[in-house]
Amino acid sequence: MHRRSRAGLKRIGLLALALVIALGAMGVAYAAWTDELYIVSFVATGNLDIDVSDCSSTFVYKVPPGGEDAHYFIGENETTEVYYYSNGTEVYYCPGSEDQNAPADGELIASAVATFDNGPTDADTATITFSGLFPEIDFRADLQLEYLGTIPTKVSIAEIAPQRPQDAILVELWELGQNGDPIKGYDPHEYGAWLEGELYPYSGGHETIYDPLGLQLEQFDMVHITLHVRLPQEEAYQNLAGLKFTGLVTVIQWNEYGVEE
Amino acid sequence: MRGRGGLNKIVVLALALLLAMGALGTAYGAWVDEIYIEGFLSTSDINTSLACGDCWEEVNNIITNDTNPAISCTGSASPLSIEVTNAQYNATATLNTHYYCEFTISNAVNSFPVTVASRSITGYTGVHEEIESLPIGTVIDPGGSATGRVHIYLTDATQATKTLTFTLTVAVN
């Protein structure tokens, strides 16, 4: 029993060793019969992104009266448009939210200032503040919207409205701006509040926007919106304080526009 | 036979559906972008006031009565009322009585600059009435004021010894 047992163990050891070598050899052979193909893929989706990319504002100064009425441009690249009136009023339409070319002898009386904040989320905001308005001056605040999205989009909402019931006089101003007042001899867009829009396609040229709803935008197209407020010489518009309004511009992918949910 | 195994599959399926719908919702939200605009508007206030100043009488450019003159001014806003009682006339110019009243127009601090657009005073036959100084176009800054003067005298005896009332109006814009 003892002799047989040792010999048996040897045989089993050899067998195991041979098996290991055979498996190893088979392994090498097996690897030789395998090939691999690596596929690296990238997936990117389109996006919708409309931002406010620029703005401009109006500043009205009281300056020493005299001289003659004049219209001229100043500033770097003549970006600021100036109207001087001999009655001592100087109106500056300038880019941005500050007047870099304010007259040294002027006292700021009233303004229409636009600012904007393109935050990290979709909730881009712009603020337009009309302060100390008085009759006859065309106060203008501009916003330039730039479409940065990769897929075409269409404007689905474009609205502006008073925020609260006590701001209802803004509706009167808006209607006066849209329709004028035939009895008083005011034409549309002469007094009151109104919007003007211009489309500047990336491909070149520009065109007036009469109805923003459904307006299609391609990447890098720009839309220039100007909000005008020009008060008539009427007592009702004097000493208005703290009026608020809101505006909303929404764009959706072009092939979803008009599709009912 | 379907028992617990079947139920497990249904629960997993429902969970997957929920996750898919959630993912779909997020994707849908990303395909809309918007710009929100906040607007504020306030207008200026013309807040001016008109007030009476000193009144006096002069003869031959010399003040003859500034304590109890025959001319007076009343009112605290436009129009002001100016009254001459027992108006005197002397055909000799150096002896004729001239009546004066000052008035002041003030612009409030919270107002904006204003310009004198017009000023007027009612009149009588045989009376010279004139607003001196404060020309049309005078600019009054917020917190500032400007003073004018009314000058009245009889040019003949038509209104002599009568009480004459004048209305002084000043408008700004």
CA-based gyration radius of chain A: 36 Å
* Largest interface summary: A-B, 57 and 25 residues
Write out the strand line-up for the largest beta sheet of chain B, numbering strands in chain order.
3-2-6-10-8
What is the helical fraction of chain A, as a range of percent? Answer: 10-25%
Number of helices of chain B: 1
Radius of gyration of chain B, CA atoms, in whole angstroms: 38 Å
Query: What structural class do the secondary elements of chain B suggest?
Result: alpha+beta
**Could you tell me the mean pLDDT of chain A?**
88
How much β-strand is present in the residues of chain A?
Answer: 35-45%
How confident is the prediction overall: mean pLDDT of chain B? 84
Tell me the major beta sheet of chain B. 5 strands, antiparallel
What does this structure look like?
The complex is a heterodimer of chains A (261) and B (173). By secondary structure, chain A is an alpha+beta fold. Chain A has one domain. Helices cover 16% and strands 41% of the residues of chain A. Chain A contains two helices and 13 strands. In chain A, strands 1, 2, 3, 4, 5, 6, 7, 9, 10 and 12 form a ten-stranded antiparallel β-sheet that branches. In chain A, strand 9 and strand 10 form a beta hairpin. The radius of gyration of chain A is 36 Å and the shape is elongated. The termini of chain A are far apart. By secondary structure, chain B is of the alpha+beta class. Chain B has one domain. In chain B, 16% of the residues lie in helices and 48% in strands. Chain B has one helix spanning 3-30, and strands at residues 32-43, 48-59, 62-65, 71-74, 80-84, 97-107, 114-121, 127-132, 139-140, 145-154, 164-172. Chain B has a five-stranded antiparallel β-sheet with strand order 3-2-6-10-8, with no helix packed on it. Chain B has a five-stranded antiparallel β-sheet with strand order 4-5-11-7-9, with no helix packed on it. In chain B, a hairpin with a 2-residue loop joins strand 2 and strand 3. The longest helix of chain B is centred in the first third of the chain and has 28 residues, at 3-30. Chain B is elongated, with a radius of gyration of 38 Å. Residues 21-30 of chain B have low confidence and may be disordered. The chains are: A alpha+beta (261), B alpha+beta (173). At the A-B interface, strand 1, strand 5, strand 6, strand 8 and strand 13 of A face strand 1 of B. Strand 6 of chain A pairs parallel with strand 1 (32-43) of chain B, so a sheet runs across the interface.
